[in-house]
Amino acid sequence: MAIERWDPFRDVVSLREAMNSLLQDSFVRPAGPLTGGAQGGFPLDVAETENEFVLHAQLPGVKPEEVQITVHGDTVLIRGETKAEQEKKGETWHVRERRFGAFQRAVTLNAPIDADKANAQFENGVLTLTLPKAEAARPKQIKVGAGAGK
């Protein structure tokens, strides 16, 4: 007969895993793709070139007028709100997974942005931000001159 050592944390971890599974499998999830919750908000990609950042954010079902973009130094904040469809009399929902309500996501870049030259395009549910780096943050080339002879 083998002696098994009691580990109190083994039971706690399994309880936490059970609660996570219960919440993930339920109809009402605590965080979703547009809520800015545990999953980090809506998905986005950020690319950098020598002179600018290009940010692509997926916002399916969001109208361009529902999105607000704020730039402060090296931080970009994207936020907005979507409205739920009105329920019709005599209509019964069987599944309702689309998210409605406020959403936001802040991204801190490694250089300040020139907000006056920024450009935002919205097409097919994808927001594309072109964010030029501030002049002070752009790399500068220093030419080396020949020194005066002695």
Report on the structure:
The strands form two sheets. A four-stranded antiparallel sheet has the order 1-2-7-6, with no helix packed on it. Strands 3-4-5 form a three-stranded antiparallel sheet, with no helix packed on it. The protein has a domain at 32-84 and 99-137: Immunoglobulin-like. Helix content is 12%, strand content 31%. The protein has one helix spanning 8-25, and strands at 44-48, 52-58, 67-72, 75-82, 101-108, 119-123, 126-132. By secondary structure, the protein is mainly beta. It is flat, with a radius of gyration of 25 Å.
Brief descriptors of the model:
single chain; 150 residues; mainly beta; Immunoglobulin-like; 4-stranded antiparallel sheet; 3-stranded antiparallel sheet; 1 helix; 7 strands; 12% helix; 31% strand
